[in-house]
Specification:
The protein is mostly helical. The protein has 11 helices and no strands. Among the domains are: about 80 residues, no CATH class; about 130 residues.
């Protein structure tokens, strides 16, 4: 499974622009071999350094496994420890509406530039594909590949009739894609990448804009709470009618304008406490005779009562796992992006 799944994933990946099953498999295997070779080389270097630093090792295989486990925990905490303080701090700051407005304004402006660049790249890819198709004769041996690209481009444009290519231009080497099947696969791959990048940037831009508008709505409703009788008035939908609608508007106002801010601050405090507990547990990982691990203390406190052993540590453990998953999510996404670019 460790070899089949990555191979299938690479085969189905949009970056595999090859036209035949054999070529797509070769591209997938080559991409995975390159990625795992780099990861394996890094792991081998770490293992060699570990053996050099512990020449007189008396712990055997078990001691070596324990040392690897402890080293992995310490290295992971060192590399990903930034999230231990960054996540609670960002949640606390985002609870401040004025700070969040500044962040969203900056992000919207940044995403607008990225969207414009992505639109330009997508337009260029469309122009190149169309120009390559126009200059290729019907009898060209590469024409079947070009027909596949033409059909893919037509489907992309049908899916979004509102998209209008603009500013597309041809570079010096943009008309050299009709030389062989590899160059045609490169053209198809670039068109897919440009298409996906444009709609990814568009989605992120619209998400930022909608969040900024909703935040502005929330601030306006809080400032006009007395005039609106503590009812939430949205700029994106019509007011609710009836007695139940009035109650729902009041509930929405209380949630958006009062409760959510306080819950965000409370959640930030809880995560800050969990970060401190994780740091204490990692700092006392070595046998020093002092147990400062929150989970170890909880388990020892309940004694041999199996029900309490299962129930008491569960909430903090769940929060900790969620927090660690959250802070590592970005790192793994960047790692997958590096793998794709390889």
């Amino acid at each position: 499974m460790t070899t089949v799944v990555p191979t299938i994933q690479g085969y189905e990946d949009a970056d595999a622009g090859d036209f035949t099953v054999k070529e797509r498999l070769k591209t997938s295997i080559h991409m995975n071999l390159l990625f795992y070779s780099i990861v394996g080389a890094i792991g081998l270097i770490g293992l060699i350094l570990l053996l050099i630093m512990h020449r007189a090792w008396d712990g055997g295989i078990v001691g070596f496994a324990m040392a690897c486990s402890n080293t992995f925990g310490l290295v992971t905490g060192a590399f990903l420890g930034f999230g231990l303080s960054e996540i609670p701090r960002n949640i606390w700051k985002n609870a401040d509406w004025s700070h969040r407005q500044k962040v969203l304004s900056h992000r919207v402006a940044k995403m607008a530039v990225k969207l414009d660049n992505a639109h330009q790249e997508y337009s260029n890819a469309i122009v190149v594909a169309q120009a390559t198709s126009n200059q290729m004769s019907k009898r060209d041996i590469l024409r079947p590949y070009m027909d596949i690209i033409d059909n893919m481009l037509s489907q992309m444009l049908r899916e979004d009739p509102s998209f209008k290519p603009s500013g597309g231009r041809l570079g010096e080497n943009d008309m050299d894609y009709d030389t062989d099947d590899k160059s045609m696969a490169t053209l198809r791959r670039q068109l897919r990448r440009a298409h996906e990048e444009y709609y990814r940037c568009k989605s992120e831009y619209m998400t930022c804009v909608m969040e900024a508008l909703n935040l502005e709505d929330t601030i306006k409703n809080y400032e006009r709470r007395d005039a609106n009788r503590w009812k939430y008035v949205s700029s994106f939908r019509e007011s609710r009618s009836g007695k139940i609608g009035s109650i729902l508007d009041t509930i929405e106002f209380i949630w958006r304008c009062i409760l959510r801010k306080q819950l965000q601050k409370a959640f930030a405090v809880i995560l800050g406490c969990m970060s401190a507990a994780i740091l204490l547990a990692e700092a006392t990982l070595l046998p020093s005779g002092v147990d400062l691990s929150l989970f170890s203390i909880l388990i020892k406190a309940v004694g041999k009562q199996e029900v309490l052993v299962q129930m008491v540590p569960t909430p903090p453990a769940t929060i900790t796992l969620m927090k660690m998953t959250w802070k590592t999510n970005t790192c793994f996404r960047r790692l997958l992006l590096v793998k794709t670019q390889l």
